[in-house]
From TrEMBL:
Alphabetic keyword roster: DNA-binding, Transcription, Transcription regulation
Protein name from the UniProt record: AraC family transcriptional regulator
Organism encoding this protein: Desertihabitans brevis
Matches recorded under Pfam families: DUF6597, HTH_18
Family annotation (SUPFAM superfamilies): Homeodomain-like
């Protein structure tokens, strides 16, 4: 795994890896900068990418970070300060700290302290489960001390490679042969690749494409991912809807609904409002975002 980010590592507003995950991405870029790099080397069978979010907002101007995150686990080193430059908590934990973020059922949301930085490792879907042998449901909807799951040292945000202690924690548990032999994990990896096919909109289509039963897919997803395949399909469609809205590429919501496989506009609006908090017609920006609008958080 590389020890430095390629180039300046900046994640562009229209970076396809961020689209639909970061809600109100233009507003986010007013207070934060994001770096991301794909993982290479032996740990790439369980780790997807490493990332960093650093932010600074004006004192007295609250900023809520919101992300429609992927169904993955993140291992993070987090530090933040308040208006007096004293350490500030994140997710109910004092900082600096090393945390484990499980699958987020709704929108990942956190009110950002005045300044801070988070360095993270994103697992592939099912990556931490195959590493530990523990069902992903154990972490779903939770942010917990990483030491509860992995043997991990604290990390210094100013170190040459702040990710290194996180990488070492994963490497200590990594068994390439066991990862390769886990048929359920291999199925999950194939399933997530197939979900990107615009023709795959139902669990039945996904199961058919993988040559397994829908029941098998449900069982394997619940263990490795922490959510069923229907939930994952819906989450991906909502991310795609948010991406189109943020980029101003959805002037016709009925057409967007059809493109995403919804029966009609009403079904998309209901799903979107239930998760994001407002329907697509209200989420779609009418003009340039204002500072203080909802932006990105630590997880992606």
């Amino acid at each position: 795994m590389p020890t430095s980010l390629a180039g300046d590592g900046a994640v562009a507003l229209e970076d396809p890896r961020q689209l639909g995950r970061v809600l109100r991405p233009a507003a986010h870029q007013q207070v934060a900068d994001t770096l991301r790099e794909d993982v290479e080397g032996p740990l790439a069978d369980v780790l997807s990418h490493r990332w960093r979010v650093r932010w600074e907002r004006a004192p007295g101007r609250p900023h809520t970070a919101r992300v429609l995150s992927d169904p993955v686990v993140h291992l993070t080193a987090e530090a933040a300060t308040d208006e007096t430059d004293a350490p500030a908590p994140l997710h109910g934990h004092p900082t600096p700290t090393v945390l484990l973020h499980g699958l987020v059922p709704e929108v990942f949301e956190v009110e950002l302290p005045v300044a801070g930085v988070v360095h993270g490792l994103a697992f592939h879907p099912g990556g931490l489960s195959v590493l530990t042998g523990t069902a992903a449901r154990a972490w779903a909807g939770r942010v917990l001390p990483a030491g509860d799951v992995l043997e991990v040292a604290t990390t210094d945000a100013d170190a040459d490679d702040p990710w290194q202690p996180l990488v070492e924690a994963v490497a200590r548990r990594h068994d390439p042969a066991a990862v390769a032999a886990d048929a359920g994990y291999r199925l999950v990896r194939r399933a997530f690749a197939l979900i990107e096919d615009p023709g795959v909109r139902t669990v039945e289509a996904l199961a058919t494409g993988l040559h397994v039963s829908a029941r098998t897919l449900q069982r394997v997803f619940l263990h490795h991912v922490g959510a069923g395949p229907l939930w994952v399909l819906r989450r991906r469609r909502l991310q795609q809807a948010a991406a189109a809205l943020d980029l101003g590429r959805a002037p016709d919501l009925a057409l967007l609904s059809a493109d995403l496989g919804y029966a009609d506009h009403a079904h998309l609006s209901r799903d979107f409002a239930r998760v994001v908090g407002l329907p697509p017609s209200r989420y779609r920006p009418a003009g340039p975002p204002r500072e203080g609008d909802a932006g990105v958080g630590a997880a992606d």
